[in-house]
Amino acid sequence: MKALRGVPLLSLLALTSCGIPATGVVEAGGPASGTLPLTPVYFVENGALVAMPRTTERPGDPEAALRLLMAGPLEGEGRLGGLLTEVPGPATSAPLPTATADAPGQPSSDAPTVTVEGSTMTIGLPPGMNRLSDTGVRQMICTAAAAYRLTRPSDATVTAEVTDGGGWRVTASDEGCPDR
């Protein structure tokens, strides 16, 4: 019986002697924050595609990634500032809006549209952007597919059809995109 009386006392000593002092709330700076969401955007350097990370408010959104591509490389970016693009920017110098004043929530006519069904993606070029070079098509497909994969990781090949609305269309896949 004497042995059982000592058990509660031993349990109490074990809990109070763990070396952690009792404290109140400790103020230690601002709230925790994560990393900024990034999406790869493909530019051309020495004739080859290279992925450059871009901050985005909409990770996983191919249309948002294509808007970043259309904005072009940053000044001095790449080795010796040698990044180029074969994808023209918007027709105006104004930033690409995400919606029009007449139709809030609808994509701007200055931006490409992207629809996805299964592993097939259709990229519609905005009015005025016609017949891209082979490299420009690869830039668009690699950028859109990489953005799409951010929130839907898969080993499956993404097939994309790029169209200009005037009858021109090219179909290719994201196989061979750098870092795929």
Q: Number of helix segments?
A: 3
Strand content: 15-25%
Largest sheet descriptor: 4 strands, mixed
Name the average pLDDT.
79
Strand order of the largest sheet: 3-4-5-6
Q: What are the secondary-structure elements, in order, as H or E?
A: HEEHEEHEE
Q: How many β-strand stretches?
A: 6
C-alpha end-to-end distance: 71 Å
Which structural class do the helices and strands define?
alpha+beta
* Portion of residues within helices: 10-25%
Radius of gyration: 26 Å
Shape assignment? globular
Which ranges are low-confidence, i.e. pLDDT below 50, for 5 or more consecutive residues?
92-107
Descriptive account of the structure:
The protein is an alpha+beta fold. The chain has a domain at 38-89 and 107-173. Helices cover 23% and strands 20% of the residues. The protein contains three helices and six strands, in the order αββαββαββ. The strands form two sheets. It has a four-stranded mixed sheet with strand order 3-4-5-6, with helices on one face. β1 and β2 form a beta hairpin. α2 packs across α3. The longest helix is centred in the C-terminal third of the chain and has 18 residues, at 134-151. It is globular.
What attributes characterize this protein structure?
180 residues; 23% helix; two-stranded antiparallel ribbon; 6 strands; four-stranded mixed β-sheet
Please specify the SSE layout and strand pairing.
Blueprint: H1 2-16, E1 38-45, E2 48-55, H2 62-70, E3 113-117, E4 120-124, H3 134-151, E5 159-163, E6 169-173
Helix pairs in contact: 2-3
